[in-house]
Amino acid sequence: FHLEVSLDTWTQGNAIKTYKYNVLTFLPLNLYEQFKRAANLYFLALLILQIIPDISTLPWYTTLIPLVVVLGVTAIKDLVDDLARHRMDKEINNRKCEVLLEGRFQESKWRNIEVGDVVRLKKNDFIPADILLLSSSNPNSLCYVETAELDGETNLKFKLGLRVTDERLQREQQLAAFDGECEPNNRLDKFTGTMRWQDERYPLDLDNMLLRGCKIRNTEECHGLVIFAGADTKIMRNGGKTRFKRTKIDELMNYTVYTIFALLILVAAGLAIGHSFWYEETGSKAWYLYDGSNQSASYRGFLSFWGYIIVLNTMVPISLYVSVEVIRLGQSKFINWDLQMYFADKDTPAKARTTTLNEQLGQIEYIFSDKTGTLTQNIMQFKKCTIGGRTYAVDMGCFRNHPLYPT
């Protein structure tokens, strides 16, 4: 048995990863993401200021404790969401599939499938990777697939194997002796390729491919060659890297915090300037206010500016983020408990897979549709007909005198 697939780059194995964090990256990545929020960054800077003795007007732990609570609550929520992604990835990667190993088909997990493996799929099986259809139990290696998992379309689409593979690769022994070499392109928007086998070259196109995420329908059995696996499959490349998403509420809160922070700077600057004038006119001349340091009025005003920033830190609502996170968590629970979104026929309730984007639901700005018949008025106008071999039309007088014409 020998089989080779030539690719510029390809990933070993068929395991997929949709989660954001692992044990090592959770803390740094989550903190980095949280400090993109203006309030968290502000309180971190405030904590650094409170460590400086000449500036601090409040103990440093008065800022540290609320900041740790806010970061901890958000981190726990993000961890719960990511653990759900881990479980989903594990479930998918551990699905079973029949792979040709040592001359016979053996059950193997999806994550162990590699480029170049020959797999056998049966009716209602999900396709584990991007596969070149070799043969099927239907005539001419016809295979029907359902793409509902990809685009929601329940109408079946048909795929065809090459005629040469349909004729010569039906039995297990023939598949084990297959020594072809495939050269597919690695473009996302289309698929073309070439298969070299027994000194002949055969063109390949998308009609010969079974894409990951589709489901086998109306086909008892089919065989295919794994062309792309894991992160190289069309569905995974189209999804791209998992991104941290921000909602309109997050953007609005950041804008609000920036505005409050600008107001805070103006108030602190006004108080610091007033303190400088007061010390120049009164404080420096009062012997009972002498603190033993010979600092100028402007320098004292500079230090008092940062002191006022610390004292007035309650103007920036750090609890706002905690409140929003709690609201999102409650909304996700209500979505899961909503009886009107429960599908009794299949015992399937609604499931909020993340608590980050709840407030985006229902905020529809644009509607795009390719079903033009649903958005336009279909009008049928009579032109002509044939009755008894004779043609009649509205603009023909003989039609109006015909006994079948409705009066």
**What structural category arises from helix and sheet content?**
alpha+beta
Under CATH, the homologous superfamily of the domain at 97-230 reads Calcium-transporting ATPase, cytoplasmic transduction domain A
- The total strand number stands at 15
Secondary structure: helix percent:
25-40%
Mean pLDDT rating: 81
Based on Cα principal axes, name the global outline. Answer: elongated
Radius of gyration, in Å, reads 35 Å
CATH C-level label of the domain at 97-230: Mainly Beta
- Spatial arrangement of strands, main beta sheet: 3-2-4-13-5-11
Q: Approximately what portion of the residues adopt beta-strand conformation?
A: 15-25%
Low-confidence stretches: 1-11
- H/E element string? EHHHEEEEEHEHHEEEEEEHHHHEEH
Q: What is the number of helical segments per DSSP (H or I, 4+ residues)?
A: 11
C-alpha termini separation: 78 Å
Active site: 370
GO cellular component, one term: plasma membrane
Organism: Takifugu rubripes
Cofactor: Mg(2+)
